[in-house]
Structures are given as structure tokens and as C-alpha cells.
Amino acid sequence: MSNELVQVKTYHVEGDGITLYFLGDDPAALELTYNDAQGERKFSGKEISQQETPIGLMVSVMMEAIPDLRTVVLSLALPTANRPADMRSVMLKTFAVRTTNHTTIAGPDIIEGATQTYEVFVLDGNAW
Fold it and tell me: Measured on CA atoms in the order 95, 50, 47, 21, is the torsion positive or negative?
């Protein structure tokens, strides 16, 4: 029996009304697919930003940008995971955060309350 482990690069997770598929095999050709009740959106290449954090890789995309009103960014936490070479995938739990940045042409000082609001999605899925 082999103890060889393979680091996963592809994630398929869903929960709280959304489905996310991230393909990270090739750093030069990243892909993220987002699906919810309004339909599917695909992001690739420079539309996707990545940042290593203490909690894992954070992958983010700009979902919406309306000047003088808001920007909406979706960030998906991807834990480092290894699968046994003889297994197709491993199960995992993670989360995504949709951050709305409230903006005005006059700057953040005139916004009453929080300038960022968050919606958190609890996600389950597989990685391979």
C-alpha cells in the first residue's frame, strides 16, 4: 500500500445557495466558476487574485463595480489539502465571503455606518 500524497489543485464546493468551482492546476490559467440563483459567472486569468494567508489560500474576484455606490468582491478560502494517490478526491469544508464595499465620490468619510458589509457562505465539497 502506497502512502504517496498528491496536493490538490481543483476544488468544487457548494452551500448556502452557491456553487464554486476553482481550477488552480496552472497558475497562469486560473479559473473560477460561480453559480447561484441568478446564473453562472466565469472568471479567469487576471480577474482572479490569490493571496496566501495564515488560514490558507484566499482567492478573490470582483463580482460587481458600480461607481459612486459599491463594489462587491467574492473571496473563497481554499485550505491546503492532500489526497492519497489512490483516491480520486478528498472531502473538505470551507467558506466564502461576499464583501460589499460602500463607496461615494466624496470618499468614505460621509458613509454612515460600516463601509464594508459581509455575507458569509458555509461550503462543503471535494478537492482533487
Answer: negative
Q: What is the DSSP letter of 111?
A: -
Give residues with Cβ within 8 angstroms of 128, minimum separation 6.
Answer: 8, 9, 10, 83, 88, 89, 90
Reported as a pLDDT band with limits 50, 70 and 90, residue 100 is very high
Q: Which of 127, 115, 5 is nearest to 57 (CA)?
A: 127
User: What is the rounded CA–CA span in Å between residue 106 and residue 81?
Assistant: 44
Q: Is 21 exposed, middle or buried (0-12, 13-18, 19+ CB in 10 A)?
A: middle
Per-residue cell: 66: 458600480
